[in-house]
From TrEMBL:
Cell membrane keyword on record: no
Known function: Reutilizes the intact tripeptide L-alanyl-gamma-D-glutamyl-meso-diaminopimelate by linking it to UDP-N-acetylmuramate.
Name recorded for this polypeptide: UDP-N-acetylmuramate--L-alanyl-gamma-D-glutamyl-meso-2,6-diaminoheptandioate ligase
Annotated ranges, domain Mur ligase C-terminal: 312-422
Domain Mur ligase central: 108-290
All copies of domain Mur ligase N-terminal catalytic, residue ranges: 2-98
Family named by the database record: Belongs to the MurCDEF family. Mpl subfamily.
Domain of life: Bacteria
Keywords, in A-Z order: ATP-binding, Cell cycle, Cell division, Cell shape, Cell wall biogenesis/degradation, Ligase, Magnesium, Nucleotide-binding, Peptidoglycan synthesis
Length: 456
């Protein structure tokens, strides 16, 4: 079968394309934003990617068109599909029918930490010899791919609450029917499609309705928005963890690099390279999800001790002189704050510089603008990038900033400023570049400029 994927370079759709290729289908795709790591994965899988959404990409007609949720009516490829009666389906529906049917699905949902937690669960199951399938919105460094079919009944899927497609406005995750469900947290996000937090909670309630009675819902204790979802109806086992929950967690290193989990007389200790309270919570959730799949806490902890992290989640891209550059996906004030707090606990008095592009739909709409200033309190210096087309100014965020901050609208100037300011720093400088997109390749530009700069 020839499957053509519209929006193929998105993390979800690109991963889905790789699964279709692994099933033996001929796969092609179209997109208008092509950048690594997804473009590299698709090329390695032998999947042809065409630039733009031209009708001729659909000639001769494929057997099936899988349409990503970023595409809308009026898109020339979408209009061609409809006008010529080409068979089409959403990505989540195709995944549910062709890959997830009959499998033990482990779904990870929530506003933050989905990619990291999903990667942890997949790695724990892999380390235990269970060879799971997975589809993750990032590239776990233990696997170097974002999706695979796997060999057993287990499949881990990062489960997004964003809408399914222009013709299916339900959240993606209602298609997945998990037996093990992790709910990391819940805040207002995706302001372009949800009116308020209650609207998102309704979608989470719909997800809860799909978990069987023999299934299990895992969540941190004391999350009011999640508890309200459970109060709307829950028909499955519930497992909470936290300070006052039946499953307790002890943070034995201030930066979160060492912690223990205590449950039913079993204690498992994790010593790993990750930091921050958010990653401790992610790790505990992953351990409990894997335990529901048959892996003991002790074996799970051994796996997390060699968990290599995820690309674009505080990924260390390299160091030049005193400057180390990290790539991070943070796209929400809470994610920015927790990431910087974790780094601060790890590096102490080092200079921490945050370079942030407010690229997500919610950020571009200005929904969280009042929270952005306080989110960077753990940094020493912040550079906000004003992306083209954003109709509100970041100057108000700078004016309210508790730390030194500035706005830049020119990436080359931004890079030059950072190089001149920090290349001869007397103490280490940690530069965290935050965006949920390619950010004009500013990460590599900065490292290259540092390399090319004259030595002291």
């Amino acid at each position: 079968m020839h499957i053509h994927v519209l929006g193929i370079c998105g993390t979800f759709m690109g991963s889905l394309a790789q699964l279709a290729r692994a099933l033996g289908h001929r796969v092609t795709g179209s997109d208008q934003n092509v950048y690594p790591p997804m473009s590299d994965q698709l090329a390695a899988a032998g999947i042809e990617v065409m630039n733009g959404y031209l009708p001729e990409h659909l000639q001769p007609a494929p057997d099936l068109v899988v349409i990503g949720n970023a595409l809308r009516r009026g898109n020339p490829a979408v209009e061609y599909v409809l006008d010529h009666d080409l068979p089409y389906v959403s990505g989540p529906q195709w995944l549910a029918e062709q890959v997830l049917a009959g499998r033990h699905v482990v779904a990870v949902a929530g506003t933050h930490g989905k990619t990291t937690t999903s990667s942890m669960v997949a790695w724990i199951l892999e380390h235990a010899g269970l060879t799971p399938g997975f589809l993750i919105g990032g590239v776990p460094d233990n696997f170097h791919v974002s999706a695979r079919l796997g060999e057993g009944p287990l499949f881990v899927v990062e489960s997004d609450e964003y809408d399914t497609a222009f013709f299916d406005k339900r959240s993606k995750f209602v298609h997945y029917h998990p037996r093990t469900l992790v709910l990391n947290n819940l805040e207002f996000d995706h302001a372009d499609i949800f009116a308020d937090l209650a609207a998102i909670q309704t979608q989470f309630h719909h997800l809860m309705r799909t978990v069987p009675s023999r299934g299990r819902v895992i969540l941190p204790a004391g999350e009011p928005a999640l508890e309200q979802v459970l109060e709307m109806g829950c028909w499955s086992e519930v497992e909470r963890f936290g300070a006052e929950a039946p499953i307790t967690v002890t943070r034995e290193a201030e930066d979160g690099s060492l912690f223990s989990v205590h449950s039913d007389g079993e204690t498992a200790q994790v010593r790993w390279t990750l930091t921050g309270d958010h990653n401790v919570s992610n790790g505990v959730a992953a351990l409990l999800a894997a335990r529901h799949c048959g892996v003991s806490l002790t074996d799970g902890a051994a796996a997390l001790s060699v968990f290599a992290g995820v690309k674009r989640r505080m990924e260390n891209l390299g160091s030049v002189g005193p400057v180390t550059v990290f790539d991070d996906f943070a796209h929400h004030p809470t994610a920015i704050a927790t990431t910087l707090a974790g780094l601060r606990r790890r590096v102490g008095d080092d200079t921490v510089v945050a370079v942030i592009e407010p690229r997500s739909n919610t950020m571009r709409l200005g929904t969280h603008r009042e929270q952005l200033s306080d989110a960077v309190a753990e940094a020493d210096h912040v550079v906000w990038y004003q992306p083209p087309g954003m109709d509100w100014s970041l100057e108000s965020v700078v004016a309210a900033s508790p730390v030194a901050a500035e706005v830049s609208g020119d990436l080359d100037q931004l890079v030059n400023t950072l190089v001149e300011r920090y290349r001869h720093s007397a103490k280490p400088v940690q530069v965290v570049i935050m965006s949920n997109g390619g950010f004009g390749g500013v990460h590599r530009k900065l490292l290259a400029a540092l390399q090319a700069a004259p030595s002291a």
